Amino acid sequence: MNNGLKVKRQSKESKLVSKMVWGLIICIIAYIVYVSFIKKDPALILNDVSKDVFLVKTETVQKRDLRHKLITSGSIKALEEAIIYPRINGKLQKNILKEGDSVKKDQTISLIDRDEVGAKYEPVVVPSTLSGVVAKIYRDPGENVTTQTPIALVVNQSILRIKVDVPERYVGEIYKGQVANLTVDAYPDKKFEAKLDIISPVVDSLSRSVAVEFKATNTKNLLKSGMFTRVDISLKEVKNVLSVSKKSVFEDEDGKYYVLVPSEDSKVAVRKDIEVKFKNNNYWQIAGLREGSKILQFVYGIKDGSKIEIQK
Q1: Which residue in 293, 272, 276, 294 sits closest to 285, CA to CA?
Q2: Backbone angles phi, psi at 53, to 5 degrees
Q3: Which of 35, 49, 196, 201 is an S-S bond match for 178, by CB 3.0 to 4.6 Å?
Q4: Domain 86-150 belongs to what topology?
């Protein structure tokens, strides 16, 4: 009985010693943390935290041919189009020509029987008012027609016109004879040339744009009246000029342009003021840098004095 009590007492003493040891270990760890971090000078702690370093890439200042263009859209129409009407009331006797046929001015397209009871007349011709192609026949033989009934549509597609609206801010860069390239879905790999022929003398007060009209010679008859087309207008072009990507150019609060260049040790971004002379959608002509020099590509948040690491 005494032996059992003695074993229990020893077990309790062992657990108590174990708890004291673990308590001492925890106190030692807490003291180390206090001495190492909490008691340390806050300024020294901040110095131990590394500053932000921007990972950047560079681009080379080089000479390019730059072109400023305006891309808009419009519909193609034949230069000459005419809807043909009969000159009398009656019944359509016969269509002499069909859609797609060539036609000359005054050539007969259809014949009309006069609608008069008890009288017999020779058929009256419906002539074309211009030379071109019969684009559409509107009526079938046997239908009653009046002088207000369209019989056919004739188009001359040798010359085409394209009307587009040019935003007001580009008015000073357009002129008669200006070249534009046309592209259509039917021939995505082909470009067709058109020249500016008409410029409206007024600006639309609602759209703030100017209506202009281009003309294109349809030598191979590939373009059709009614087609939708994209119009690529060459506004201005400069050749062999120093340029950089527009994304790498910064503008300050005073409206001055600058780029960032790497310092001599390539560790810091340094501001370099430049002059911008010509802009297009991708590259800007600049002055103030040498051909072949390196500038930093845009990274969000980077500025003069930022620490950098150049990526290879």
Answers
A1: 276
A2: -120, 125
A3: 196
A4: OB fold (Dihydrolipoamide Acetyltransferase, E2P) (2.40.50)
Residues with Cβ within 8 Å of 83's Cβ and at least 6 positions away in sequence, in order, are: 150, 152, 153
User: Rounded CA gap, 129 and 182, in Å?
Assistant: 30
Question: Contact 56/309 with Cβ under 8 angstroms?
Answer: yes
| Other beta carbons within 10 Å of 157 | 20
- E-strand spans in 252-300? 257-262, 269-273, 275-279, 283-287, 294-296
CATH fold label, 69-76+158-237: Elongation Factor Tu (Ef-tu); domain 3 (2.40.30)
In this prediction, residue 153 carries a pLDDT of 96
CA–CA gap between residue 12 and residue 63 (Å, rounded): 88
Q: Mention the CATH class of domain 54-66+239-310.
A: mainly beta
Q: What sign does the CA torsion over 90, 95, 96, 98 have? A: positive
Q: Which long-range contacts (CB under 8 A, 24 or more apart) does 197-205 make?
A: 197/161, 199/174, 199/175, 203/168, 203/171, 204/165
The pLDDT score that the predictor gives to residue 120 is: 78
**pTM for the predicted model, two decimal places:** 0.61
pLDDT digits (tens, 9 = 90+) for 204-241: 999 999 999 999 999 888 999 999 999 999 888 899 99
pLDDT tens digits, residue range 130-147? 999 999 999 999 999 999
Beta bridge partners of 229: 74
